[in-house]
Amino acid sequence: MTGRLAGRRVLITGAASGMGKAVAELFAGEGASLALLDCDAAKLSDVAAFLGAFARVCDVAEAGSVETVVAEAAKSLGGLDGVVSAAGILATKPFADFDRATWDRLIAVNLTGPFNVIHSALPALQAAPSATIVNIASVSGYLPMAGTTGYSASKGGLIMFTKSLAFDLGPNIRANCICPGVIRTEMTRYIWESPEHSQRASDRVALKRLGAPEDVSRAALYLSSEDSAFTTGTEIVVDGGFCWR
Ligand SMILES: NC(=O)c1ccc[n+]([C@@H]2O[C@H](COP(=O)([O-])OP(=O)(O)OC[C@H]3O[C@@H](n4cnc5c(N)ncnc54)[C@H](O)[C@@H]3O)[C@@H](O)[C@H]2O)c1
Questions:
Q1: Which of 116, 126, 149, 228 has the fewest CB atoms inside 10 Å of its own CB, making it the most exposed?
Q2: 3-state DSSP assignment of residue 211
């Protein structure tokens, strides 16, 4: 490890699993102090104990509890230099069967969640000499796929939310997205546990494999470090060659 985040204090949501967990592990190894948020208490406790990091159980869709735990996180770390929003959910069904509760929850977690976290973290981020925001969106924010009206709307919204944030919060705060394709995590277990689905998903991308959480955490490291000092309001697509953006 190279200490690329030495001295930086970073809050990560969705840190108990998948990409958020991979980001937490990589960032800890690169010298960052971490505050980890997730709604899954048992898994979060395991990750936090392994990394020796501050952690709080929290539903990112609940503005009040987000405000409380983000303030606790900033106090515990002595400030915040970065946020990575990885908490998210997936639900797919044909639009004719799409119920309002599913729509509301997708928007609440995947779009309003990052808003809640970043809004609560803003005073701390503004107090830092230079701060970074990384939101995990998706190729679904670009590409229509069957049954993804709610998920795609939440991720397309997150991409534009992030671009607009970059405009509003520069020059001291940079804001960028990562748009993953299919990555092997709990969210996509239904794909990679089936040899047939897994093969189909691999065959349709140029690199002929599913992504690993570490493919995404390395992009998050770039966007959270000085290596990306002149990059804001954009996306890094990590999809193995699929959506061609
Ligand atoms: N896996 C993929 O192929 C893929 C592709 C594109 C985008 N994404 C996005 O990447 C992000 C990370 O997903 P993942 O694949 O690592 O999934 P994952 O299920 O492994 O991890 C998601 C984490 O978010 C947490 N979480 C869910 N809802 C929450 C809430 N309301 N409040 C707090 N925490 C909550 C979960 O407990 C879990 O620990 C998500 O935003 C997802 O939409 C995933």
A1: 126
A2: strand
Torsion of CA 190, 108, 88, 240, to 10 degrees: 80
The pTM for the full model equals 0.98
CATH of the domain at 225: 3.40.50.720
Is there a contact between 213 and 156 (Cβ–Cβ < 8 Å)?
Answer: no
> 3 alpha carbon to ligand 1 midpoint, in Å?
26
Question: d(Cα 22, Cα 221) in Å, to the nearest integer?
Answer: 11
Question: Is 142 among the catalytic positions?
Answer: no
Q: How many domains does the chain have?
A: 1
Residue nearest atom 2 in ligand 1 by C-alpha distance: 183
Q: Is residue 163 part of a domain?
A: yes
Inside any domain, residue 3: no
pLDDT, one tens digit per residue, over 121-143 is 999 999 999 999 999 999 999 99
For residue 45, what are the domain limits? 9-237
In a domain, 179, yes or no: yes
The answer, yes or no, to whether any atom of ligand 1 lies below 6 A from the CB of 89, is: yes
Q: How far is the CA of 14 from the centre of ligand 1 (A)?
A: 6
